[in-house]
């Protein structure tokens, strides 16, 4: 295989270089499309003082939630935190710094960071605590606030398939934040369900080009249900 082969054989190699105090951008939405093996490796490494950027922080005992157990996360930048009791406990106790960000703004922060755009204006959040202290400009008579983009030392991503060159495709809603996260890391690690040989993926179907990806690892995944809801029988 050529020098373009990005497949690594174990999780320790996949997350090599992660150290205390770094910023990690994680793909996923709830428990859908999360790089759970890479998250578990961060827990095993015991890395602390992390700033984690992700839509939410998993649930108690699974996903990013496991990193709260040993207080490995110092700051969380996310849009939703409602499914994790330990998260709430640490937030209220002042043990966890939380920066709540509107969901679309969070996605654009990642995308802009990956595109080399340092900041952008958005109407979302103007006139709310989100916009306090931020620069305001008017376009066509409407106020917009300036939001800085986000980049990370590591981006950890879950994909459906990838070839050995790092070209990725995602499956249905498991795509969510993963494509934006993949562009925004200095080192991007992709955990996939299946690795294929170069040429097997249709170039027209590639979601994340391999140019953004540094490492690829084959993972195994647990299909958890975040919240079970059953319909009541109509009587």
From TrEMBL:
InterPro entries: 3-oxoacid_CoA-transf_A, CoA_trans_fam_I, CoA_transf_BS, NagB/RpiA_transferase-like. Keywords: Transferase. GO terms for molecular function: CoA-transferase activity. The keyword Transferase applies. PROSITE patterns: COA_TRANSF_1 (PS01273). It comes from the Bacteria. This is CoA transferase subunit A. Pfam families: CoA_trans.
């Amino acid at each position: 295989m050529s020098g373009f082969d990005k497949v690594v054989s174990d999780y320790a190699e996949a997350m090599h270089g992660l150290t205390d105090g770094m910023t990690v951008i994680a793909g996923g939405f709830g428990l859908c499309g999360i790089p759970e093996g890479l998250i578990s490796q961060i827990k095993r490494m015991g890395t602390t003082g992390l700033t984690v950027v992700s839509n939410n922080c998993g649930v108690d005992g699974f996903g990013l939630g496991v990193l709260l157990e040993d207080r490995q996360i110092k700051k969380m930048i996310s849009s939703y935190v409602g499914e994790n009791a330990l998260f709430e406990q640490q937030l209220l106790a002042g043990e966890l710094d939380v920066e709540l960000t509107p969901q679309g703004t969070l996605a654009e922060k990642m995308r802009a960071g990956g595109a080399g755009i340092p900041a952008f204006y958005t109407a979302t959040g103007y006139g709310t605590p989100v916009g306090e202290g931020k620069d305001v400009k008017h376009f066509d008579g409407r106020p917009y606030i300036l939001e800085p983009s986000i980049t990370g030392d590591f981006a950890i991503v879950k994909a459906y398939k990838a070839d050995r060159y790092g070209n990725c495709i995602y499956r249905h809603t498991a795509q969510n934040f993963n494509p934006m996260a993949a562009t925004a890391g200095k080192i991007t690690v992709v955990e996939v369900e299946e690795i294929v040989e170069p040429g097997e993926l249709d170039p027209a179907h590639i979601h994340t080009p391999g140019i953004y990806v540094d490492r690829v690892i084959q993972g195994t995944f647990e299909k958890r249900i975040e919240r079970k809801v059953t319909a009541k029988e109509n009587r």
